[in-house]
Amino acid sequence: MALAASEAMQLASSVSARDLARHARPGPRYTSYPPATTFSPSFGPDQVRATLAHVREHSPDEPISLYCHIPFCSSLCWYCACNVKVTRERDRGRSYLDALIAELALVGNALGRSQPVAEVALGGGSPNFLTADQHTRLVEAIAENFDLRPGAELGIECDPRDTSRDQVDNLARLGFKRLSVGVQDFAPQVQEAIHRQQSAETTRALVDHARSRGFTSLNIDLVYGLPGQTRDSLRGTLNAVIAMTPQQVALFGYAHLPRRFRHQRLVERKHSVPGPDDRAALFLVARDTFENAGYIQVGLDHFAPPDAPLARAARDGSLWRNFQGYSVKRADNLIGFGASAISSVADAYWQNNPEIPAFAAAVTAGRAAVVRGMQLDRDDRIRRRVIATLMCHAQLDFAEIDAECGIRFEDYFDRELDGLGGPDYAELIEVDFDARRLRTTPLGTYLIRNVCMVFDRHLAGSAGRARFSPTM
Ligand code: SF4
């Protein structure tokens, strides 16, 4: 949802940290519906083959997005919740790349090698763990197996502590224009708590160099709710980030799940993790700081200047949510490569084996490395449409859903509308049955995941609740 200036001012005055904290509850991030926690091991290589064959037969000319996961990092950040392998053995990148290229060939063959690529994203881990030559090999392999046209958007996540100028120069030569940089927080006490020492100067040097080489889009990731973070320290970080004029900022709430990620226990050695009230107050500080700097909020947790592609997408309805968060929609099908990568193709999702040796063994033997997935049924597709619309636009037009899904909204979601009429949602949404639409209140805009959960058929039985993060 892109907010007009007047709406933003209304939000600023009407939403309090106490209200946000009062409604916060654990829930999925809805980077997909159904969430990955509901995927089943019964979805295997046969189903992947059938899905790719379906795409080859029915939509051979439709653009696709590719995501390549590079799982290596040279040191562990203690807040990390990614699929990551910490190592300083650079050689591991070479054998992993061989496996990645084998998987590209496998999928490229299945799709007929002519599928146009709209977008390539390298994420991790730290994709800069690969050398410049390895980046070149990877892009060449993509071009050999898919139709990689000059207009495709190429993006990469880089760790400023560990990215050389040569790597950036080479990425620019390969056509990369989009740089994503993790900052999280520049305050020394926070950096010490999360075991990530990264100065604003180091970050700025990478950003400036990338821009001088033709990178045009800069995304910066921040985290609120970290131990040691105060409103003042966060303001300092935000001002340093704004000075770098990013086209997009993702502001994630820290999900402290020490039972699942044991290393997260280390973040509490000196400072405790902020509770719901402090966490909500930190978010509001960030929101106000961005809005005062002319940024607008896009979706749940992104900020962008009004003329940036993400803000334009929010206005023209092409804002999309996928496994990486909010993005401009460039293709319906997203294929993930590498250990733990998730694909969303036609009406199926699947995830690769997160264990690097098992992933590599499967793809080098010519088999899909899938370990779980699901085929969406009609009900899943309808609910996916509803939840994606809520996550991107914080409102629903029932007639639009009717037309697209072949239902009558009020009949199909009779129980959900009843539930939304309860006291938990009175402050979050307004349903206008005459106009046939649902809108969020200013408060509900920030708690949209609470509303989405009402439409989530899989929630009660989800085996993965431990991966949920607070809705605020
Ligand atoms: S750089 Fe990112 S992926 Fe790597 S350990 Fe730190 S948070 Fe995790």
Describe it:
The chain is 40% helix and 22% strand. It is an alpha/beta fold. It folds into 2 domains: 1-30 and 378-461, Arc Repressor Mutant, subunit A (Orthogonal Bundle); 39-343, tm_1862 like domain (pyruvate-formate lyase- activating enzyme). The strands form 6 sheets. It has a 9-stranded mixed beta sheet with strand order 10-11-9-8-7-6-5-2-14. Strands 15-16-17 form a 3-stranded antiparallel beta sheet, covered by helices on one side. Helix 6 links the parallel strand 6 and strand 7 (176-184). Helix 5 (132-145) runs parallel beside helix 6. The protein is globular and about 55 Å long.
Mean pLDDT: 93
Low-pLDDT residue intervals, each spanning 5 or more residues:
1-12
Give the total of domains.
2
Helix content: 40-55%
Tally of DSSP helical segments: 18
User: Judging from the principal axes of the Cα atoms, what is the shape?
Assistant: globular
Structural class: alpha/beta
Please state the second-level CATH architecture of the largest domain: Alpha-Beta Horseshoe
How many beta strands in the DSSP annotation?
21
**Rg, Å, rounded:** 22 Å
